[in-house]
Write a structure and sequence with these properties.
This protein is mainly alpha-helical. It has four helices and no strands. About 60% of the residues lie in helices and about 0% in strands.
Length: about 180
């Protein structure tokens, strides 16, 4: 498991601020990816990314409910305590290809859910605050369920390369 945690998270409010940012960013990124896939005439993958965004929105709602009675700290984008430039669950744009298959999209999503799971596990293992450890452990169990869901989707996915979208406007490099 890669080290996803760059420092100790010492309070429930700080932990929930991290969790909320991670989930919001992930859902937003999946919507961006869906839009990108639609522009490139890859409707099957666009639909999958939209479904993942809806799943992400559900995670945002869960975290938001937990935050209802807590004032969250305002954390600068560069001050979050994860080791990646974006939140652990956010797919990197460079991992996207406009001709990617549903299988490749699911593998990308699974990779990011595993990173989110690793983040929560590391917070649960390392925080000195018992309440943070308990809450991070609970969220790690929820992430484990998301990982299992994606693994199940991936097992059922039949990757028919013949059905992958054709490039209707391939890059044209002048000679």
């Amino acid at each position: 498991m890669n080290d996803m945690l760059a420092g100790e998270i010492s309070s429930v409010a700080e932990f929930l601020a991290h969790a909320l940012e991670m989930e919001v960013e992930s859902a937003e990124r999946y919507r961006e990816l869906a839009d990108n896939m639609e522009v490139h005439n890859n409707p099957q993958v666009a639909t999958l990314f939209r479904r993942l965004a809806v799943e992400g929105d559900a995670h945002v709602e869960q975290v938001t409910r937990r935050c209802a009675s807590i004032e969250l700290p305002n954390i600068a984008p560069w001050a979050f305590k994860w080791t990646s430039p974006d939140g652990p669950e956010s797919p990197a744009m460079e991992d996207l290809h406009y001709l990617m298959s549903r299988r490749q999209a699911l593998e990308l999503a699974l990779h990011n859910e595993v990173r989110g799971l690793a983040f929560y596990i590391q917070v649960a293992d390392r925080s000195l605050d018992a309440e943070v450890r308990q809450l991070a452990g609970e969220m790690a169990r929820e992430e484990h369920a998301h990982v299992a869901m994606l693994e199940n989707w991936l097992r059922r996915e039949v990757d028919n390369e013949l059905a992958s979208p054709g490039d209707l406007d391939p890059p044209n490099m002048p000679e």
